[in-house]
Amino acid sequence: MGKKQHSKDRLFITRTEWNTEWGGFRQRTTFKTRLPFYCCALSLQPFSHPYGTLDGYVFDLQAILPYLKKHKKHPITGEALSAKDLIKLKYSKNDDGEYYCPITCKEFNENTHIVAIKTSGNVYSFDAVQEVSLPLLFYLFVYLFI
């Protein structure tokens, strides 16, 4: 028996022991990425006839209609959904075939906040909607209180 026989006796386990011997935290091998804005959330392919739901998911008409006929629910959230709840989205394309905002003429990218008007289905960037609507709200506010 040596003098230092109990030098490794601890009342806790180290991170390495936890990971190797006790099945601790597993390192992620894959990164979760968001689907590009121009892809269907059901088929994961670029859409040709985009339709959206109120919670912000975009589907291709050719993918969502057979699914709704069979299951009658939202493919992502599982809530009840019918074809009447879908909104036809009208994206604008420039000469290069890229989607863009018709107000600011800026191309959409992965970091653009995109919004759609429910009544018309037109798609704009959030910045453009703020630019257009804030002066109007200011005008109405000033007009009502003068």
SSE diagram, text form:
Blueprint: H1 15-21, E1 50-52, E2 58-60, H2 61-71, E3 87-88, E4 92-93, E5 99-100, E6 114-116, E7 123-125, H3 126-144
Antiparallel strand pairs: 1-2, 1-3, 4-5, 6-7
Mind explaining what this structure looks like?
Its EC number is 2.3.2.27. Keywords: Nucleus, Transferase, Ubl conjugation pathway. The chain has helices at 15-21, 61-71, 126-144; strands at 50-52, 58-60, 87-88, 92-93, 99-100, 114-116, 123-125. It has 146 residues and is α+β, with helices and mostly antiparallel strands. The chain folds into two domains: 34-89, Herpes Virus-1 (2-Layer Sandwich), CATH 3.30.40.10; 91-146, no CATH class. Strands 2-1-3 form a three-stranded antiparallel β-sheet. A hairpin with a 6-residue loop joins strand 6 (114-116) and strand 7. The longest helix has 19 residues, at 126-144.
Mean pLDDT rating: 85
Shape: elongated
Q: How many DSSP H or I helices?
A: 3
The number of distinct structural domains comes to: 2
Residues in β-strands, percent = 5-15%
Q: Give helix % range.
A: 25-40%
Task: Write down the CATH class of the largest domain.
Answer: Alpha Beta
Poorly predicted parts? none
Oligomer: single chain
Strand order of the largest sheet: 2-1-3
CATH architecture of the largest domain: 2-Layer Sandwich
**CATH fold category name of the largest domain:** Herpes Virus-1
Give the number of DSSP strands: 7
Structural class: alpha+beta
Domain U-box: 33-106
EC number: 2.3.2.27
Keywords: Nucleus, Transferase, Ubl conjugation pathway
GO molecular function: ubiquitin protein ligase activity
